[in-house]
# Entry
Amino acid sequence: MQTSVRPRLAITIGDPAGIGPEVVLKALAVPIINQGCQLTVIGGRSVLNQAYTRLRRRGGNLQSIDDHAVVDPEQLAILDCDRSGSTAIIPGMPSQASGAASFNYMEQAITQTLAGHFDGIVTAPIAKSAWKAAGHAYAGQTELLAERSGVNQFGMLFVARSPYTGWTLRTLLATTHIPLRCVADTLTPELLSGKLELLVRCLAEDFGLATPEIAIAGLNPHSGEQGQLGSEEQDWLIPWLEEERSRRPNIKLEGPVPPDTLWVKPAEAWYGSHQAPRPAKPISAHDGYLALYHDQGLIPVKLLAFDQAVNTTIGLPFVRTSPDHGTAFDIAGKGIAKPTSIVSAIQLAKELVCQKQVASSIKA
# Structure
């Protein structure tokens, strides 16, 4: 893919019946967001105009909508993907039409990015149920991105920078959108080796951490307590981890850490001390965390950093980030959605594209 001096990012508006159009308009009104990059919104121009009209009607002027400015769509570069069904879309009411629209936005973003027109994609949230109603049976945007990009090894990494200490939390999920009862059968040494390799490569290439410290969660309470509370740790997780330590002598791998204590150190690193500021990377914190299933990783991430966390898909041939929240249909159209997470997603995408360009130029 051709590199550019300034990151070129595509920003999809997600499900048009959700808060995606609103938070995109609010995020792109933040002055720093547009600095040093080229941003193109992929979605329906009519959807964005309607969202803008509602916000203006609610706020009266650009600066009075919940302390967030809102940009006029006329000032944006927009790849208009409107279809006739967009007229049937109502804020707060997901439907076949909204699912078809958001799927179309995503496909356009992927196609344009793979063609070299963009360096990365920032995706507003979609509703999987609306995609299914529109005939698209994907577990989520991540799986569509991987399929269209032709990659088999990919992962969901959640990144958040603490506003208190500056420390960065990075959490990769080994399994994602599957039922809890399927987790133990899905986890294998081969799967974890693939995820760990993705995490190690990402930390080195995207964050400049060549010799990281990584914590791996246990699966069972107390990490099985020597087989008394579950056998997976004794049967294969601990032997697998020992093999990985031998294969990666320059990387510190801790684990399997009991799931109920894994997040104590990240919480301390996130909030720091009230008496004195902590260093950017506290001695006790790790550079990366590998959680074995969805809620094991995302409950603590959202408790610590709901407004700051960013979902980035690693393993793709381009950068992809997304806010760590859903469509919020319950508040769609009310003008009260906060753009904090999508602002963070755009900022992180810019940083990752720049880091990848630097790494690519060094290799060249």
